[in-house]
Structure of Type 1 glutamine amidotransferase:
Amino acid sequence: MRFLVAESEPRQAREARRESVGRSSGETYLKVLEALVPGARCTRVKPADAGAELPSGEALAGYDAVFLTGSPLHLYQETPETRREVGFMQAVFASGTPSFGSCAGLQLATVAAGGRVRPGARGREAGFARRITPTDSGAGHPLLRGRPSPYDAPAVHTDEVEALPPGAVLLAANRLTRVQAAEIRHGAGLFWGVQYHPEISLAEVAGALRRQADDLIQDGLARSGEDVETYAAQVEALHREPDRRDLAWRLGLDEEVTDVRRRTAELRNFIEHLVGPTRSERGRG
């Protein structure tokens, strides 16, 4: 299979994340996809960057799937970076190549298809999205196959989908964020996405908490930098020892987060139930 990873982070955020956890968001996707599909040929592009292009001679339609990463960009702000991102996603839809996005990836597909994004009406989700509940449509949708009701997942975001585009299907929600998972059809394309992060490890959750410590304190989610560090250190320790029941209990987590196979369920489901059949229809089976 041939996968294209569209790294939505602008350069400064990319470098900050790499310094924090050793990988940019796109590099995280590459690592996870290569583990999920051994032998897959993965290419990374950076559509937020000026002058970023596909490799010479390549076209979006030549890939079996496009994956869109998270990003600190705010898609309700008109900037050169957001214009490039939206234009790229519109081209993905036009190509007919199946696409998947997490966090800002879902927001990007929403805006490119005519929906709206806003700052989170109930504040940020930091660390984990709790009690995500599939809708009636989501309970039978292959993207969420294997997920119980409710479930938790890694999540780090301040923005949310305000209104899905016409024809989109809401698949999951929780108390804090109304759109946690959705299917979007637009033009020739089909997108499955989630507001949370099935691709990131608990070590990357800990890194995100540390990078955002000042914001967490300002938002009242922590009293001090020491509070943030204590919580982040527990999350990181659970990454190293995922079978530690004491840490999972203390953090209120279960196997939906601590078990890597369960945590990455949406990615596996997307590849198995959308990418694979589409690939066969295109004659690449």
Q: What stands out?
A: DSSP finds twelve helices and eleven strands in the chain. The CA atoms of residues 44 and 56 lie 13 Å apart. Residues 265-281 form the longest helix (17 residues).
